[in-house]
Amino acid sequence: MKIDIQAYTEQFQQRRGIHFNSAGITPIPSVTATTIERAVSRMREGTSLHDADLLAEARAARLTLARFLGADPAQVAWTPNCATALSIAALGFPLRPGDRVLTLDQEYSSNFYPWKVACERSGATLVSLPHDADCSVDEAKLLEAIVPGIRIVAVSWVQFQTGAIIDLVRLGEHCRQQGAFLVVDAIQGLGQLPFHFDSLPVDFVAGGSHKWLCSINGQGFFAAKPEFMQWLRPIVVGGGTFNRFGTFADPDAGMESSARRFEPGGYGFVPVLALGASVSLIESVGVAAIESRIRECSERLRRGILDQGLELVTPFDQRGGITSLRLSPSHEGLFLQRCGEARVALAKRGGFVRISPHAFCSANEVDTVLELLRETRT
């Protein structure tokens, strides 16, 4: 069922305070809370009594997620979090001495350390491109660095500090020309910007539940193209790897052919069903409508920052909901303190204050934060 943006924002009426930390963790909508309560109620009665229904709903959640990502369900796997998904890509890929993995030195740790460890264990080389002072992404330098011998390019679609966005089409096509696989951490883009896995020259995409998708923490996922997945070896193994749930071990059993072979055991019904509900809500309103509302809030926020003569690090016309600014140490400390007192959720990341409103946020809330910025200037 299709809904408008107003109906979407009404799903968040029970939140308290101002939530401008969507790049960190968001409130959950009413439909997701209801889904959780219903699942927990059935578990309290006795999970075994409702096991068939819960499994069916979990299967439906996988289909919903796959549709949302623009992927085949057989390409999609559940993981405990985004870091686990990226670790499967890094530690499950058969890197060898002489291989090189290219990343950015400003990557979030979950998309850096798995590759660091994978290279140390395999004898491959990790190439880390240095960042500029404003943490923008110089795509020309990135493309220049992708040369024969680069086996994997591992980057975030949207950078967590400033919201800088990488052109995945341009990057992916260049990777293919040079014989490199492209692995993308999309956690900061999914839910706020359009994405279609099968239409993009991306080999592996990872995400998580608690940021722009507005679900509870503790649910990750990935989708992998067949050409990349055939190289991956499970880094943890169980009954699910061989599709042998509920029966004896068969030494002659073949490994599950779909991405489910990376799900070694049972997964949590609550986080899976919660994510399915949140993604369904996003589908019902459409990512385009969410992006449009986020753009309105972001432009109002960025204009207000510039009007106060403050340093806006994020380019004014940059897509997405992450806006970063640089304040003097005294102004930053006082501003963050006053935000905490006023129940305004935002974040300090690196040398910046990061403000990331979602589509459920309002112009009045933007104005309140801008007023706090004004009041705390020294």
List the main descriptive attributes of the protein structure presented here.
13 strands, alpha/beta, four-stranded antiparallel β-sheet, Aspartate Aminotransferase, domain 1, 378 residues, 12 helices
How many helical elements?
12
Strand content: 5-15%
**Unreliable stretches:** none
Radius of gyration: 21 Å
Helix content: 25-40%
Please give the domain count. 2
Give the beta-strand count: 13
- The global form is globular
Strand order of the largest sheet: 2-8-7-6-5-3-4
Tell me the CATH topology of the largest domain: Aspartate Aminotransferase, domain 2
Determine the structural class based on helices, strands and strand pairing: alpha/beta
What is the distance, rounded to the nearest whole angstrom, between the alpha carbons of the first and last residues? 50 Å
CATH architecture assignment name of the largest domain: 3-Layer(aba) Sandwich
Main sheet summary: 7 strands, mixed
Q: Mean pLDDT, nearest integer?
A: 96
| SSE pattern, N- to C-terminal | HEHHEHEHEHEHEEEHHHEEHEEEH
Quickly name the level 1 CATH class of the largest domain.
Alpha Beta
Query: CATH superfamily assignment of the largest domain?
Result: Type I PLP-dependent aspartate aminotransferase-like (Major domain)
Structural account:
- There is one protein chain.
- With 378 residues, this protein is α/β, with parallel strands linked by helices.
- It has 2 domains: 104 residues, Aspartate Aminotransferase, domain 1; 253 residues, Aspartate Aminotransferase, domain 2, CATH 3.40.640.
- The chain is built from 12 helices and 13 strands.
- It has a 7-stranded mixed β-sheet, with helices on both faces. A 4-stranded antiparallel β-sheet has the order 9-10-13-12, covered by helices on one side. Strands 1-11 form a two-stranded parallel ribbon.
- Strand 5, helix 7 and strand 6 form a beta-alpha-beta unit.
- It starts with a helix and ends with a helix.
